[in-house]
Write a structure and sequence with these properties.
Blueprint (H helix, E strand, L loop, with lengths): L8 E2 L8 E11 L5 E11 L9 E4 L4 E7 L2 E2 L5 E4 L2 E4 L7 E10 L9 E5 L2 E5 L19 E10 L5 E4 L2 E7 L4 E12 L6 E4 L2 E8 L5 E8 L8 H18 L7 E7 L6 E2 L4 E5 L12 H16 L8 E2 L5 H19 L2 H20 L11 E2 L8 H18 L1 H15 L3 E2 L1 H12 L8 H4 L5 E9 L4 E9 L14 E8 L10 E3 L2 E3 L2 E4 L3 E7 L6 E4 L8 E4 L3 H10 L3 H24 L8 H12 L5 H7 L5 H8 L5 H18 L1 H10 L10 H21 L3 H9 L3 H15 L3 H14 L3 H12 L6 H8 L10 H14 L1 H4 L5 H14 L3 H8 L10 H15 L6 H11 L1
Parallel strand pairs: 2-12, 18-19, 19-21, 22-24, 25-33
Antiparallel strand pairs: 1-23, 2-3, 3-9, 4-8, 5-6, 5-9, 7-8, 10-11, 11-16, 12-15, 13-16, 14-15, 17-18, 20-21, 25-26, 26-31, 27-30, 27-32, 28-31, 29-30
Helix pairs in contact: 1-2, 2-3, 3-4, 3-5, 4-5, 4-10, 5-6, 6-7, 9-10, 10-13, 10-14, 11-12, 12-16, 13-14, 14-16, 15-16, 16-18, 17-18, 18-19, 18-20, 19-20, 20-22, 24-25, 24-26, 25-27, 26-27
The structure holds arginine and zinc ion (ZN).
Length: 881
């Protein structure tokens, strides 16, 4: 196997830069084929830096056109320029000097979507993490903070709009139909937050008055004709701005805040100072084209990027190892925002489902890494569920441990102390230690140690002594390059649920620190004795998912059935039910594999029906109750020697069992949920639609005919119901007239709406049939599919690899081959997206032998290719290691 010799970056090697760049003036002569960039850098030798240290500036695929030092052409012998580095050896004696660097870049042939590129005729940039070095030579690292002045000139017709960070300063006409604009950002910022946008776009404007009375002009820029689809994003933006003032005391700081939606984007969105650039998927929405999930994502991502203005921009990362400093914290903040705007319980369940689906397999496989990694070869590969979602869980635990008040005090101190700085996780934690007087040394392991801790638990009640004795033990499984783990501080929220469902009081608890309903697990083993407990309770633990751990408690089915009906914490009710469903699906898969019929307990099925019909519960919660663990969820719990076909068969059998048992109830419920009110994206209405869609699947399965789905598909006045019905038709009736007709009608209706066509691709990518691989291959030939657009690739190939378990893991290896072919085809043009797609293979070792062999062979074949990108080589090597 070919080994990649790329440089490895290590946290312990961090050194402050010998040079600083307090100011930069950029001048762009924009032209799609060839853009000239003139950068004037004010360079300063850092204190204590040796006088003769060469200045090494980062580049990536750059061509140097000119270099001037203090205005004079630099002698050729004084520097050395390659596409990825500019080294200047002879520098002026003075501590401060000016460098002028002229580079030539090629926006329209830039397929990596990093640096300056063109998307649907619009110039835009993506600089995080290391894209600025594709624009000019620079100290492209986040601890170099500079004040930016940006001048752009372009053809006035092609690009009437010229935007950059900060506030607009000046603009005007030039000769030859060109024009210019100058922007100035007074806040020193790292290069990854630089952005420009130039093009011809429509706009929605609004304004926001901050708490202290500053008037901010808001603009959301979208393709002409799509302005109305930006209304919801604007509303979400204003709510985010208000919320950050109220919950965190954070005000906006510039005169303008602009958002631009582009159709070719590697990730979700980017928080460039004053000029957020978004994947248009996370801006555009209306009833006709967006589902409720899309609306909720838009709200969350608009908030996320806005919140970065303080957690990321005003206070940024010292180096990329600290990525979670801004991402984990900002995800936590956007989660809290959505929880406040919607249903907190439902939001929390959604977060935990996503964490288990994306972060747990990462943490339990070859790509596991700490929330704050210690080494990387390619930083783009660390924009992961661990850094983001587990990073957010760690901040949530911090709040649980400190309590709301001390947590807020810590945040306030962090903002006060570090505004304008590039800092580390240690700085972050120190603010909380100082504000609360607590020692967070053991807690900090959550940042440093990879792996999902296991917590094993058992309890027994002594009726005579009136004591509940709980035994808890923690262990952290080994992960790549970390075989020995230290003991963690695990905060477990809990309750003693009494016979009537009430939380029982107790007189005292001994054996661990127990405060405010939280057990602080800090040693390997704790035996906790609750005294003065007057009735036998059911122990409810990890309420609200207070710690991101796997819980292994003694399997008392009766207790779980009880908690699912009675726990005062809605998360725990859902968890109890989910555990029961998962366990029964694991048993059923085993039965199927052994050639037996799967069987399901009546009381579990009845519990599902009762909760679904319980009108005292929110509809969105009831929809979650009826949503069985996914095939991937079950596979993850089985953990080794997985046979996806058996899981699929077992799950299908449970769906049908519930469908038959609930036929009447579900029919009535479904009809009763219909309302004639005009579409509204609010959480309550969305919950009703979610429940209707969930019920529809059971109705169709119970009846064995597509009629109900066909009716909903035809009558729907919104995308949630239309796509929901189409999903069911495609899953179960794709080879019937109804299925084919609905798919064709959908395609016809949305042929020219790419974001909706993505749903059409996605829905078909999930069809679990024999012909799945060839269907996906044929869809790749569709005139509107393109490897150049990340949204298309994710919709079709990403969905196939993540949500079509039987086809991706098809026993003949053809599913793996499809994904591998796509990864290789993509790597030459967009390494970031190719590498991300390749992570679909991360759990390959947990499959059964035949599948494992297919995966290994393909991975080894890919890894052996010449000219792999650093991104892809890194993922493949770690996956195979
Ligand atoms: N900072 C962005 C966010 O809000 C993500 C950008 C990552 N982009 C990349 N090319 N790695 O989460
Ligand atoms: Zn972010």
């Amino acid at each position: 196997m070919r080994t990649e010799s790329g440089q490895i970056f290590r946290l312990e090697d961090y050194k402050p830069s010998a040079y600083l760049i307090p100011g930069i003036a950029l001048d762009f002569a924009l032209d799609a084929d060839e853009t000239l960039v003139t950068a004037r850098l004010r360079v300063e030798r850092a204190e204590n830096a040796p006088d003769n240290a060469p200045l090494e500036l980062d580049g990536d695929a750059l061509t140097l056109e000119a270099l001037r030092i203090n205005g004079a052409d630099a002698p050729v012998s004084s520097y050395e320029a390659t596409p990825d580095k500019l080294t200047i050896r002879k520098l002026p004696e003075e501590r401060e000097f000016e460098l002028t660097i002229v580079t030539r870049v090629l926006p329209s042939s830039n397929t990596t979507l990093m640096g300056l590129y063109v998307s649907s005729g619009v110039f835009c940039t993506q600089c995080e993490a290391e894209g600025f070095r594709r624009i000019t030579y620079f100290l492209d690292r986040p601890d170099i903070l500079s004040v930016y002045t940006v001048r752009m000139e372009a053809d006035r017709k092609a690009a009437p709009l010229l935007l950059s960070n900060g506030n607009p300063v000046e603009s005007g006409a030039l000769e030859n139909g060109r024009h210019f604009a100058v922007w100035h950002d007074p806040f020193p910022k790292p290069s990854y937050l630089f952005a420009l946008v130039a093009g011809d776009l429509g706009v929605v404007t609004d304004s926001f008055t901050t708490a202290s009375g500053r008037e901010v002009s808001l603009g959301i820029y979208v393709e002409h004709g799509k302005e109305e689809r930006a209304a919801y994003a604007m509303d979400a933006l204003k709510r985010s701005m208000r919320w950050d003032e109220e919950r965190f005391g954070r005000e906006y700081d510039l005169d303008v805040f602009n958002i631009v939606a582009v159709s070719d984007f590697n990730m979700g969105a980017m928080e460039n100072k004053g000029l957020n650039v978004f994947n248009d998927k996370y801006v555009l929405a209306d009833a006709e084209t967006a589902t409720d999930v899309d609306f909720a994502n838009i709200e969350a991502i608009i908030a996320h990027e806005y919140f970065h203005n303080w957690t990321g921009n005003r206070i940024t990362c010292r180096d990329w190892f600290q990525l979670c400093l801004k991402e984990g914290l900002t995800v936590f903040r956007d989660h809290e925002f959505s929880a406040d705007e919607r249903s907190r319980a439902v939001k929390r369940i959604g977060e935990v489902r996503a964490l288990r689906a994306h972060q747990f397999p990462e943490d339990q496989g070859p790509l596991a890494h700490p929330v704050r990694p210690r080494r990387y070869r390619e930083i783009n590969n660390f924009y992961t569920a661990t850094v983001y979602e587990k990073g957010s869980e760690v901040v949530r635990m911090l709040r649980t441990i400190l309590g709301e008040e001390a947590f807020r005090a810590g945040m306030d101190l962090y903002f006060e102390r570090h505004d304008g700085q590039a800092v580390t996780i240690e700085d972050f934690l120190k603010a909380f230690e100082d504000a609360s007087g607590r020692d967070l040394t053991q807690f900090a392991l959550w940042y440093h140690q990879a792996g999902t801790p296991n917590v094993a638990l058992s309890s027994r009640y002594d009726a005579e002594a009136k004591t509940l004795t709980v035994e808890i033990e923690q262990s952290v499984p080994p992960t790549p390059s970390e075989s020995r783990k230290r003991l963690m501080h695990i905060p477990l929220a809990f309750g003693l649920v009494g016979p009537e469902g009430e939380d029982l009081a107790y007189e005292s608890a001994e054996g661990a620190v127990v405060e405010n309903g939280v057990i602080h697990l800090r040693k390997r083993r704790h035996t906790i004795v609750f005294k003065g407990v007057n009735a036998r309770p059911v122990f409810s633990v990890n309420r609200g998912f207070s710690a991101p751990v796997t819980l292994c408690s003694e399997g008392r089915t009766a207790d779980r059935l009880f908690l699912a009906r009675h726990d005062s914490d809605p998360f725990s009710r859902w968890q109890a039910l989910t555990t029961l469903f998962t366990d029964t699906l694991i048993a059923a898969s085993k039965a199927v594999r052994g050639g037996k019929e799967p069987a399901f307990a009546d009381d579990l099925v009845q519990l599902g029906l009762d909760l679904a019909a319980d009108a005292t519960l929110e509809e969105a919660f009831r929809a979650l109750v009826l949503t069985l663990p996914s095939e991937a969820d079950v596979a993850r719990e089985i953990g080794h020697d997985i046979d996806p076909d058996a899981i699929h068969t077992a799950r299908r059998a449970l769906l049908e069992t519930i469908a038959r048992a609930g036929r009447e109830t579900f029919g009535d419920l479904y009809e009763g949920l219909h309302d004639n009110a005009p579409f509204s994206p609010d959480a309550r209405s969305a919950g009703r639609r979610a429940l209707r869609n969930t019920l529809l699947e059971y109705l169709v399965l119970g009846e064995g005919t597509p009629q109900a789905a066909r009716r909903q598909f035809d009558d729907a006045d919104n995308m949630t119901e239309r796509a929901g019905a189409l999903t069911i038709l495609a899953q179960y009736f794709h080879d019937t007239e109804d299925g084919r007709a609905a798919l064709a009608a959908f395609e016809e209706r949305y042929r020219d709406t790419p974001l909706v066509l993505d749903k059409w691709l996605q829905i078909q990518a999930m069809i679990p049939s024999e012909g799945a691989v060839s269907l996906v291959r044929s869809l790749m030939e569709h005139p509107h599919f393109s490897l150049a657009n990340p949204n298309r690739v994710r919709a079709l190939i990403g969905t196939f690899s993540m949500a079509n378990q039987t086809a991706f893991h098809s026993a003949d290896g053809e599913g793996y081959r499809l994904v591998a072919d796509t990864v290789l085809a993509l790597d030459g043009q967009n390494p970031q997206v190719a590498a991300r797609l390749a992570t679909a293979f991360r759990s390959w070792r947990s499959l059964d032998k035949g599948r494992r062999e297919h995966a290994r062979a393909l991975l080894a074949d890919m890894a052996g290719r010449e000219n792999l990108s650093r991104d892809l080589a890194d993922i493949l090597e770690r996956t195979l290691a």
